[in-house]
Amino acid sequence: MSVIEIKNLTKSYGKARGIKNINLSVEQGEIFGFIGPNGAGKSTTIRTLLGLIYPSEGNATIFGKSCIEHPEVRKELGYLPSEVFYYDNMRVIDLLKYSASFYKKDCTRRIKELAEVMDLDLKRKIEDLSFGNKKKVGIVQGLLHEPKLIILDEPTSGLDPLMQQKFFELIAEENRKGATVFFSSHILSEVQKMCSRVAFIKDGKIIKLEKMSTLQENSYKKISIETKGIIPKDVFDIKGVSKLESKGKSINFIFKGNINLIMAKMADIDLRNISIEEPDLEEIFMHYYVKEE
Amino acid sequence: MNIFFRELKANRKALIIWSVCMFLLILSGMGKYTAYSSGGGGSDVFEKMPYSLKALLGMGSFDVTTISGFFGMMFVYIELAVAIHAVLLGSGIIAKEERDKTTEFLMVKPVSRTKVITSKFFAAFVNVVIVNLISFISSLMMVNVYNKGEDITKNIAVFFVSMLIVQLVFLSLGAALASVMKKPKASGSAAAGILMGSFIVAKITDLTDKVNVINVFSPFKYFSYKDIVDGKGIDVTIVVLCIVLVAVFVSSTYLFYKNRDLKV
Fold it and tell me: Is A103–B110 a contact, with Cβ atoms under 8 angstroms apart?
């Protein structure tokens, strides 16, 4: 049985926003990446899945049941929203205890463990916390009842790199213990690290669903070089190069494929400068669009 | 139960402030009674006043030189205050989570929306009852300080029973409004606006008998306070109608809140 099952899910708000005909299924024990630029419909999909908003068409279930009709299925769910807001006048520990009170188990030990890992002061008032610290509260709050399904919506925003690292370790650990993870983000590289499959969403539609292994074989690189002399344009006329732009001595393109091939090519050129970056999502999306049309 | 206690805790500060204010309102209100009752001739002054002026001052047909008449006049203001409390509380219990953006915390817990609303209603009910009791006890205390005539404890008790019903009408009205309206920030002002509107309606029908039919929009006029002052008690039919009204508001709160998208 799939842990998350989304069928023909559509949610329309007026003309501009919303999602259209989303189909997804997430299997038990996998880490599923959900990637898309801001405003693509990631949060809308998640909120519909969790029963916060109603779908216009289609349906979405977790553990085989709709959250709207069976709110109790959410007892095995841990959710970290993209923006965390809590009751300001509460202390962190009170909020966590309140959160734990919804699940019929003792979470005190787990709260302590998680707070220690995330370096979170439980005695402070929530209104005094920085954005990053609130996010940590959100993480502890989402994991304290050891849920079987963890849904993360842009979990790393606001966390410093060290905390991000600890957070990824935490999620990986939960996954090893058997939790299924649904990971929404606009940063491809962070999803790349841990996900087994990934879905790309743009303008409310899923434009691609791929196994991570396939994506990794075809890792995309954005390469910019400056040469000492003018080089003929057709040097880079090889498989895997796209969006080639050349202006005199500087050349930019996106490369997808075996990285050794392109490096061998580079070795033959007299370079002044080179930079190899992860292309941003927009560029990869554009690439997909071109391919689909 | 956890939501219920959380809600009580969240409202604790406001409840204390409201209770203190109600006590002070009644304290200062009753303090003026000596000015109305002293000298015996005061009654003449009030009798010579044109009715419309008396209505505007809130005296209406009460004999404000007697303690129960004076209390009847003052009661309108007590009731206005607790109605504001009730309507804001009602709209708050529904709108607060969305306004403070805690919906995404609470509503992904394994609880149904119905259960959340029920817990919140119970907590709000406790608040309303406490405000009512504090006002009742303060009134009893203050009336006993100034009352030199017959005991009016029973009349006062009837006043506060009627007030509890009016409080519940406003509480459920506030909740229903917040539930129907999609903008959580606007629902508090809308609720307060409707309350002021109904208070104005009550004032208009105080001034003239010709438009008594619009009293239906003003819970302030559902009970005849003149009758209570005169010791005639309250009309059971009105009580039943009010309970029906509360039931309608409460069920529409559930209905709309359950079927709408939450603002996140």
Answer: yes
Q: Does A293 have pLDDT greater than 50?
A: no
* CATH code of residue A241: 3.30.70
Residues A201 and A68 in one domain: yes
Q: Which residues of A touch B107 (CB under 8 A)?
A: 50-52
A85:B6 CB<8 A:
no
Residue B39 is classified by DSSP as T
Looking at the fold, whether A186 and A100 belong to one and the same domain comes out as yes
Please check whether residues A239 and A95 belong to one and the same domain: no
CATH of the domain at A61: 3.40.50.300
Model pLDDT for residues B149-188, shown as the tens digit of each residue: 888 888 899 999 999 999 999 999 999 999 998 887 888 8
How close are the terminal C-alpha atoms of chain B, in Å?
A: 24
- The reply to whether residue A53 touches residue B259, judged by beta carbons under 8 angstroms, is no
Measured between beta carbons, the chain B residues lying within 8 angstroms of A79 are: 104, 108
The pLDDT score that the predictor gives to residue B175 is 95
The CA-based angle B6-B11-B12, given to 5 degrees, is 95
CB atoms within 10 A of CB A110: 17
* Domain locations in chain B as residue ranges: 3-259
- Name the region of B102 (left: φ>0; alpha: ψ -120 to 50; beta: rest): alpha
Buried b vs exposed e over B160-171: b needs ≥16 C-beta within 10 Å? bbbbbbbbbbbb
| Rounded Cα–Cα distance for residues A286 and A290 (Å) | 6
Are B102 and A71 an interchain contact pair (Cβ–Cβ within 8 Å)? Answer: no
Do A31 and A91 belong together in one domain? yes
List, for residues A203-219, the tens digit of each pLDDT value.
Answer: 888 988 888 777 666 66
Which residues span the domain enclosing A225? Answer: 220-277
Residue A59 near residue B74, CB atoms below 8 Å: no
A184: distance to nearest CA of chain B, Å?
16
Inter-residue contact A20 to A44 (CB < 8 Å): no
Dihedral angle sign, alpha carbons of residues A263, A264, A267, A271 = negative
Average pLDDT, whole number, for chain A? 87
Say yes or no: A147 and A69 in one domain. yes
What is the full DSSP assignment across chain A? --SEEEEEEEEEETTTEEEEEEEEEE-TT-EEEEE--TTSSHHHHHHHHTTSS--SEEEEEETTB-TTT-GGGGGGEEEE-SS----TTSBHHHHHHHHHTTSSS--HHHHHHHHHHTT--TTSBGGG--HHHHHHHHHHHHHTT--SEEEEESTTTT--HHHHHHHHHHHHHHHHTT-EEEEEES-HHHHHHH-SEEEEEETTEEEEEEEHHHHHHT-EEEEEEEESS---GGGG-STTEEEEEEETTEEEEEEES-HHHHHHHHHTS-EEEEEEEPPPHHHHHHHHHHHH-
Helical (H) or strand (E) element with B101: none
